[in-house]
């Protein structure tokens, strides 16, 4: 198993919620695990999409698919399922796992970062 990839147990838990299974409408997603491992590589390494290693496929295709899944709410569905588990230590996310892009260090004009759903302090 590579550094940022899912193990068998992690994949088993989320596989039923991933589109493109046999029996789903549309195309069969034969490379769903490979795609998710590629997404994890980008998110955990903090690299740009165009730096995605070739073993995960074309970076532009992966980015488009990531965006489609985000718009369709697939990532939220996966996170919701995983957070229902009382032993959810594997979903802890901090700066040691996911890096912000260097340009995310401050907001426009250097006034700090605005968090989603948190009103900006005046």
From TrEMBL:
<dbReference type="InterPro" id="IPR052909">
    <property type="entry name" value="Transposase_6_like"/>
</dbReference>
<feature type="domain" description="Insertion element IS402-like">
    <location>
        <begin position="6"/>
        <end position="79"/>
    </location>
</feature>
<protein>
    <submittedName>
        <fullName>Transposase</fullName>
    </submittedName>
</protein>
<dbReference type="InterPro" id="IPR025161">
    <property type="entry name" value="IS402-like_dom"/>
</dbReference>
<dbReference type="Pfam" id="PF13340">
    <property type="entry name" value="DUF4096"/>
</dbReference>
């Amino acid at each position: 198993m590579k550094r940022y990839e899912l193990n068998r147990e992690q994949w088993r838990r989320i596989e039923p919620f991933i589109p493109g299974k046999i029996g789903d409408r549309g195309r069969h997603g034969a490379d769903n695990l490979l795609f998710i491992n590629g997404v994890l590589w980008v998110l955990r390494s903090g690299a740009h999409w165009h730096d995605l290693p070739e073993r995960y496929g074309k970076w532009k295709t992966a980015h488009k698919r990531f965006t489609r899944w985000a718009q369709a709410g697939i990532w939220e569905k996966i996170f919701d399922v995983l957070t229902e588990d009382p032993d959810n230590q594997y979903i802890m996310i901090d700066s040691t796992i996911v890096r912000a892009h260097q340009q995310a260090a401050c907001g426009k004009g250097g006034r700090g970062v605005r968090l989603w759903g948190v009103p900006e302090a005046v």
